[in-house]
Structure formats: structure tokens, C-alpha cells
Amino acid sequence: NGWSFTSGFTEPYVQQFAGDRTFHIEDISSDHGSVDGLEHLLAYLHKGTAIVGWSLGGMLAIRLAFIAEARGVKFSSLVCLAAAPVFVGYEMTFQGMSHEAFAQFEALAKNPEELVKQFPFLITQGTQDQRKLLREVRAAYGMHVQTVALRDSSLVLLRDLDVNQEL
Question: What sign for the dihedral angle of Cα 120, 121, 122, 128?
Fold first, then answer.
């Protein structure tokens, strides 16, 4: 999953791509930033598994792939969508979101009505037929947004996680 929504939001989209293949969608929690918080996912991996993550989920997918390789657990591929090794300001090869912009993003995240209105716009921006997709995403997102407490703790994870070393 990506930041701020539950698997209920993601599952219909994943099902479209999965067809008859099996999949597991993991809801993000604050303990996923640690090795211990991700180790239970190793049980889902085998040599034909693609590890896929979007945004914060992509960053966590990188960490999971690193853990799997270190433990000798096989998987076939790693796919990261709209993900970078660091989300907030990094001075080397990737310039993440500035600390000022992230502070504005945090303020948005604390206002559930504004979040449900604005975040779907951010994730659909630039897509074909954006208006139609935005309506669909906004409706689904509103029904499957994380609780405030989980959203706040995963926001800290989004701000602090750096998987450059794992890459």
C-alpha cells in the first residue's frame, strides 16, 4: 500500500492487474520501518513473487527486498511505483520534497476533509481522463483512508525513512 489508505482502496486496482494470480496487500503501520516490522512478510515470498509497492509502500518494498536477499529468501522482482529512496529533502542524487513542503503536507494530513479532497488530486494529477479517475479515486479513498493515529505514525515513517543504503 501507499501512505494514508488501507488495502480496501488498493485491492480493486491490484485485482485488475493480478488476474488469476494470488496477491497479498499489506496495510502500512509505523513498525514497518524496522526490519522486525517487515520480517513476517518473508513468508509470502517465493522465487516467482514480485514485490510491488507504491510511494511509501515502494520504499518499504525496497527494504523488504533487501531483507529477503540478506536472508536468502527468493523472489522474482521488485517494482516501485512513484517511490524514491528518500521522501523528504536529500542532498545527493535525489532531491526529495523540501522540509517546508512536507510541513504543508503534514498540515493537510491532519485535516481529514481536506485530505480526502486534495490527496486524490495529487495522486491522479497528469493522468489521462483525470476528471473521471479523480471522481473514482476520491470516492474510494474517502471510504478507505487510514485512521488519524495510523496516518500520523505512518507520516513520521514517510518523513524519516531512507532506503538509500538498501539500494
Answer: positive
Give the phi and the psi of residue 5 in degrees, each rounded to 5: -130, 160
- Residue pLDDT tens, the chain, 167 long: 888 888 999 899 899 988 899 999 999 887 777 778 899 999 999 999 999 998 899 999 999 999 999 999 999 999 998 888 888 876 555 556 778 878 888 888 888 788 888 887 777 777 777 788 888 888 888 888 888 888 888 888 888 888 989 98
Q: Are 157 and 30 in contact (CB under 8 A)?
A: yes
d(CA 91, CA 76): 32
Q: How many residues are there in the chain?
A: 167
Answer whether 37's CB lies under 8 Å from 65's CB: no
Spatial CA neighbour of 84 closest among 92, 74, 96? 96
Closest CA to 161 of 45, 80, 44, 73: 80
| CB burial readout 71-91, b (16+ within 10 A) else e | eebebeebebeebbbbbbeee
Residues 6+ apart with CB under 8 A from 30: 150, 153, 154, 156, 157
